[in-house]
Design brief:
By secondary structure, this protein is of the alpha/beta class. The chain has ten helices and nine strands. The protein has a seven-stranded mixed sheet with strand order 3-2-1-4-6-5-7, sandwiched between helices. It has a two-stranded antiparallel sheet with strand order 8-9. A hairpin with a 2-residue loop joins β8 and β9.
Length: 316
Amino acid sequence: MDSSELRIAAVVPCHNEEASVAKVVADLQAAVPGIVVYVYDNLSTDATSERAREAGAIVRRENVKGKGNVVRRAFADIEADVYLMIDGDDTYEASAAPLMIKTLLDGPYDHVLGVRRQDESGNAYRAGHETGNKVLNGVVGKVFGENVEDMLSGFRVFSRRFVKSFPAVSREFEIETELTVHSLHLRVPRTAVPVGFRDRPAGSESKLRTYHDGFKILKLIAGLARHERPVAFYGLFGTLAWAIALVLSIPIAITYYDIGQVPRFPTLFLAFTLLLLGSLAWTAGLILDGIRRSRHEAARLVYLRYSAVTDDGPRR
């Protein structure tokens, strides 16, 4: 069995992309012969579905708004050996798909990230997006201890076992962050491939909201840090509470040593309260860390149910 016999599926989330979706479908079909392209129309009010169907895609609808909801639905519905995810706005060079798929198979890897590269004269990144992406990459790198090149890229290739072990709880554009973090905490074999990145075609409009989506992603990162690094997360608050309690207690201890009395009883009460809260925070962190390990073990067992995929086909 060679790579041409593998089931390769492309997932193309779309919302009002009638100006670009047909080209995305055609480019994928030309780049990867035999690929099955699924266009998920997410509450479009234009002719996205019609243009995609005319181009030869299988069109499905997701009536709950948000890219995360589309990916969640697609990963549950589609059965394939290799999954490719690409935005329907024609900003990514679909010609990179064969190299990304080959890289996945040769590894074998479970996650191949398309790292965006635009020409020096290009203006595909909207104002603030490139800087925001770098900041978010740095934050995730610090939280999870792994370097991330382009966390918000919408062009990726996955193995079946990655897709079927991915819980997909995000609703909107935070889905890329969740995909990245899933590959980090599960420690799956992963790599990155540079891909061309260009501006949207005429008549196509970006759905991203720089600050709104940025804050939502930061909120997701904070939530993921709480779930994936509970000792560090809760330990930070616990240590801070202990430090404040110590600062408040020292003058009281000195006064008690000098006169044998505690004239600032409310402050002493506050110090003891902070000491207790700090201890509770550390306890919560340690307990949640045990739960985290159990979750990771369960996710790993789900992941191991599926075989790796190579040029010779899925391993049995």
